[in-house]
């Protein structure tokens, strides 16, 4: 049995782009898709606005994030086997652990965190550096 494609989502546009890419890749290879949301908090702290001030993101419940991601994946590829998982852990650590049982790990280039100016977010960077499986960071 082929290992699934694992994608990390946090509700951000970057993670939704990663989800779309992961759906297409899983379908192309006949693999299942595992959608993972990991967080130490129930809501996100916020992001930096264009003016440089911190604005707080709307809290997104885990169920809403995973439900919307699963719905998007099923609409994009109805025959794809899709599972979801909420992990109460540091996102990078959780995704690296999930990658141990994955054919491929997919993440967005940036998420909903407060450091908006990075070309590659801290989670994507940590996952790419520590993963045991191939990693794709989608911009």
Describe this structure in words.
The protein has 139 residues and is of the alpha/beta class. It has a single domain, classed as HUPs (Rossmann fold, 3-Layer(aba) Sandwich). The chain is built from four helices and seven strands. Strands 5-2-1-6-7 form a five-stranded parallel beta sheet, sandwiched between helices. Helix 3 runs parallel beside helix 4 (122-130). The radius of gyration is 14 Å and the shape is globular. 35% of the residues are buried. Residues 43-49 and 113-119 have low confidence and may be disordered.
In short:
With 139 residues, the chain is an alpha/beta fold. 36% of the residues lie in helices and 21% in strands.
| N- to C-terminal distance | 30 Å
Mean pLDDT: 85
Backbone CA Rg: 14 Å
Q: Which CATH architecture?
A: 3-Layer(aba) Sandwich
Roughly what fraction of the amino acids lie in strands? 15-25%
How much helicity do the residues have?
25-40%
Give the CATH class: Alpha Beta
CATH topology: Rossmann fold
The count of DSSP E runs of length 2 or more, i.e. the number of strands, is 7
Specify the structural class: alpha/beta
Number of domains: 1
So, the CATH homologous superfamily?
Answer: HUPs
Strand order of the largest sheet: 5-2-1-6-7
Question: Uncertain runs with pLDDT below 50, 5 residues or more?
Answer: 43-49, 113-119
Q: Could you give a short account of the major beta sheet?
A: 5 strands, parallel
N-to-C SSE string, H for helix and E for strand: EHEEEHEHEHE
Number of helices: 4
User: Given the C-alpha coordinates, what overall shape results?
Assistant: globular
């Amino acid at each position: 049995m082929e290992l699934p494609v694992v994608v990390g989502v946090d509700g951000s546009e970057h993670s939704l782009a990663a989800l779309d890419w992961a759906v297409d890749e899983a379908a192309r290879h006949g693999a299942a898709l595992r959608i993972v949301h990991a967080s130490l908090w129930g809501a996100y702290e916020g992001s930096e606005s264009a003016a440089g001030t911190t604005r707080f993101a709307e809290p997104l419940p885990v169920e809403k994030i995973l439900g919307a991601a699963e719905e998007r994946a099923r609409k994009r590829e109805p025959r794809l086997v899709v599972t979801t998982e909420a992990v109460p852990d540091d996102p990078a650590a959780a995704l690296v652990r999930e990658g141990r049982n994955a054919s491929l790990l997919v993440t967005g280039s940036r998420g909903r965190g407060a450091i908006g100016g990075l070309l590659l977010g801290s989670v994507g960077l940590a996952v790419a550096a520590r993963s045991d499986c191939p990693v794709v960071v989608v911009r």
